[in-house]
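Here is the promised in-class demo. Please do not try to memorize the tokens; focus on the logic of going from shape to residues.
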């Protein structure tokens, strides 16, 4: 068995030393040998077991996997989806839709690895290439010949999907994020563009017609556009209510109507992308419209709980665009005040922090600024960045996220809304190198249940 994690090495395995973002597999070769590795593939060194030295271990691994599993991957339908926001929801909708149509489809992305149910969590939105191929083969062997895969810009940059060819490449939108790594929006867009260069010969691209950056993704492919304002699949009208969204859309000069349980204008784009893909997969409009009402949001996306005539929403929103989407959606619900609990992730794009805070302060009664995966960054620096150039005073700093959530709930009086943003489905708080168990919705339910008991 080929391994890239020395901790997983067993007797007789081959260990390949990969250079990562913050670690180098060469530093763990002795541990791999100690655990039973009988062969080492590395770029340097001389070891006590059989050793193969290569110029680039990642390139070696990529070529090996591509050649070894070429037949199986050619028999599968790979759907890659990229963009700043909407990847997870759209991918999860597509996963549900295909399975509802009796097309066995797997999902690989932010919320984990799913076959007919969740198999396990993943360390990244897009796993490293060896883990990815292992999941591909598990899907193949269990009869899941369709896979929808979230493809992040960093995954592309770190070559986690190198030489993997896709049947469909999907683009949601492009807004500011990850500039700590990419530095410029153009670099960010060009990284995502690579997915569209990895389409199979007869592959199809599906692109958000309304996004101002969509020209980066219009390459020499079979391109189909979707949108509210324009596109091959285009919205004619829509109505958003508290619990559903009605959509009238047009395709090939014909109009169709569909209702979805998802609410908010941004979710119309997620639904439209799903519809457009299914059309390109030659699914009939009648079948598409039959299954759309059955689809639900993934966990941690607009999760709602009613508390004493108030609404509490937990969402993964961690960019300005995503925050704007959530706020604009709940603003359409009859309410008195909106309160927001959120923080900004450490070791990530610092420039978006003040923009998000400024927006939150301007669009809510009060903001409770708290912790959100500080990683190795000083949380006081994060808060300082968030409040940079701010002149508003309707905020409170409470770095204990559990206490911040409780404070937010205590603010609710009558027909108020509390938004708890940034972590969504996540089960851990990352502090330094440690993963501390923590989930926003569990914290909400625990506090609410205690409040009901005590009252």
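The designed amino acids, position by position:
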């Amino acid at each position: 068995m080929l391994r890239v994690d020395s901790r997983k090495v067993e007797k007789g395995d081959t260990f390949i030393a990969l250079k990562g973002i913050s670690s180098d597999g060469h530093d763990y070769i002795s541990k791999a040998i100690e655990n039973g590795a009988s062969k080492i593939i590395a770029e340097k060194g001389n070891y006590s077991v059989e050793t193969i030295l290569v110029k680039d271990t990642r390139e070696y691994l990529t070529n090996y996997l591509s050649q070894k599993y070429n037949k199986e991957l050619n028999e599968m339908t790979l759907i890659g989806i990229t963009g700043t926001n909407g990847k997870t929801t759209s991918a999860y909708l597509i996963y549900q839709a295909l399975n509802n149509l009796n097309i066995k489809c797997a999902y690989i992305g932010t919320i984990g690895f799913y076959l007919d149910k969740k198999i396990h969590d993943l360390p990244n939105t897009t796993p490293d290439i060896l883990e990815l191929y292992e999941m591909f083969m598990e899907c193949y062997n269990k009869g899941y010949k369709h896979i929808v895969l979230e493809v992040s810009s960093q995954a592309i940059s770190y070559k986690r999907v190198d030489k993997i060819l896709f049947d469909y490449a999907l683009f949601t939108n492009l807004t500011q994020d990850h500039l700590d790594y990419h530095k410029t929006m153009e670099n960010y867009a060009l990284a995502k563009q690579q997915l569209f260069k990895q389409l199979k010969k007869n592959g199809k691209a599906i692109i958000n017609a309304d996004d101002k950056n969509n020209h980066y993704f219009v390459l020499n492919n079979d391109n189909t556009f979707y949108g509210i304002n324009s596109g091959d699949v285009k919205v004619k009208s829509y109505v958003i209510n508290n619990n559903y969204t009605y959509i009238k859309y047009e395709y090939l000069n014909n109009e169709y109507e569909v209702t979805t349980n998802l609410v908010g204008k941004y979710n119309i784009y997620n639904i439209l992308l799903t519809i457009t893909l299914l059309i390109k997969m030659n699914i009939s409009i009648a079948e598409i419209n039959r299954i759309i009402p059955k689809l639900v949001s993934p966990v941690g996306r607009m999760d709602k709980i009613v508390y004493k005539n108030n609404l509490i929403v937990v969402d993964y929103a961690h960019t300005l665009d995503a925050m704007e989407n959530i706020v604009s959606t709940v603003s359409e619900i009859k309410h008195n005040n909106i309160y927001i609990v959120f923080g900004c992730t450490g070791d990530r794009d610092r420039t978006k922090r003040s923009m998000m805070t400024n927006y939150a302060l301007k669009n809510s009664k009060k903001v409770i600024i708290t912790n959100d995966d500080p990683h190795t960054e000083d949380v006081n620096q994060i808060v300082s960045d968030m409040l940079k150039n701010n002149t508003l005073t309707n905020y409170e700093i409470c770095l204990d996220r559990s206490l911040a959530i409780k404070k937010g709930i205590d603010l609710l009086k009558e027909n108020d809304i509390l938004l708890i943003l940034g972590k969504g489905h996540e089960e851990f708080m990352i502090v330094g190198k440690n993963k501390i168990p923590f989930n926003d919705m569990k914290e909400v339910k625990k506090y609410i249940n205690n409040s009901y008991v005590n009252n």
